[in-house]
Amino acid sequence: MTEYEAVIGLETHIQLNTQTKIFCACKADSWNDPPNHNICPICAGLPGTLPALNQAVVDKGALLAAAMHCAIQPVSHFDRKNYFYPDLPKGYQITQYDQPLALGGYLDLPVSAEAGDYVRRINIHKLHLEEDAGKTKNENGQRLIDFNRCGAPLVEMVTEPDLRSADEAAQYLIRLRQLLRWLGVSEADMEKGHLRCDANVSIRPKGAAYLNPKTEIKNVNSITAVRAAIQTEIERQTRAVAAGERIESWTLEWDDDAGVLRKMRSKETEADYHYFREPDLLPLRLDPARLQALLAGLPELPLERRARFGAQYGLPEYDADLLTSERSLSEYFEAAVAAYAGDPKRLSNWMMNDVLRMIHERGVAAGELRLTPEHLAEIIRLVDAGTVNTPTGKALLEKVQESGRPPQQIVAGEGLAQVSDASQIRAICAEVLAENPEQVASYKSGKTSLIGWFVGQAMRKSGGKADPQRVRALFEELLG
Ligand code: ADP
Ligand code: ZN
Ligand code: MG
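^ thats the input. predicted complex w/ zinc ion below
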């Protein structure tokens, strides 16, 4: 029986987080605006208006292209893509057709495997700039149109058909989203439509070099939906081919609630759009000096930093990956490592267990915490030195975050220093035993698991300040 493999290419639309739209002075992001409140004669397509290209869109597009290792074109062109739809007031979309901003490039996906880690390189076909259209919706039997999003700045990026599974497509989007946020070019929030994706899917006998007809899935609004829609389509095509049917080039729509694909239309051909050069805009010529300055500002990329964290700090892959999931988090970690000057893995544990939880609970970036990297380093040093015990150290994280006061000051002010005076600890333990003869008796009759309970009592008496390990050792001695 023939074994099939999936062939997938993704077309992503990325909304850039510039202040203004691509060809007018309206705000780029109108997420919170009432319908049709963020429009002007230019983006509403009134006759007699002219577009003016927003340089920030070019800069962010070029920065993204550089980070994707694309060949940035010194000269590119804008074109009109003509079609009629109610959300497109001009009757055409300004896009870049045959001479886009950037060509080629790739995004590497790290893969962990038993036999060793490796990367899957997903090649990029092209990257271009374009304007967004508006939105339509049905409400109470009416068809409503909102032009707010008309002219919002988009980058469209098209992969080669290099992805081989639904999961790989999801990974691609996860890594792309990470990169977009890292570069600060887009919020990349799929729920808000900042990152949208159409998935092209076909199957072929495993290892074949040719391409079979594909279908295109539209309207997938989350990474989970992308994975589910592609998987559903791979299974449908595999069944169809097994039944001797031919795959036709349909456009499909994913219904996320029902978990099914619906046929929208048989695919239109490109000729339907009557592309031609946009006569109201000059060719886009990149100023070499400006481009050079932009490229000089390209930060270390997520995967580079991930590899460096492994090599430089001896972190396991898992730690390095998590700590570089966001740029702010990775910078926080490096600042904390420098301040701590101890074992980076120990610091990484505190970051992954405690600091990440604080970040998620508060919904902030690492750099926005009141608990600075220096505070974190100081707290771990206090624990290392035995000045405070581990539970107090963990409590200190919260106290510093709440008050913004330095850890040392809180320890002194609240008398949190660990009780390490041996006679004081011994007295507390003796007191616990004297007050609980029943528990002592059952311990002695073999219920040794009570040791934890005794430690708990002593810790409470000490106001949480005794060293739990020493307390435990003392009980073992006193009860033994
Ligand atoms: P279209 O004719 O639909 O515009 P393109 O050649 O422009 O197709 O490619 C659009 C996307 O579909 C790209 O991401 C490309 O990698 C992908 N693609 C092209 N052919 C196939 C195929 N046979 N199977 C899966 N994906 C494909
Ligand atoms: Zn406008
Ligand atoms: Mg195409």
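The pocket of adenosine-5'-diphosphate (ligand 1) is lined by residues 7-11, 158-161, 200-202, 211-212, 214, 216 (CB under 6 Å).
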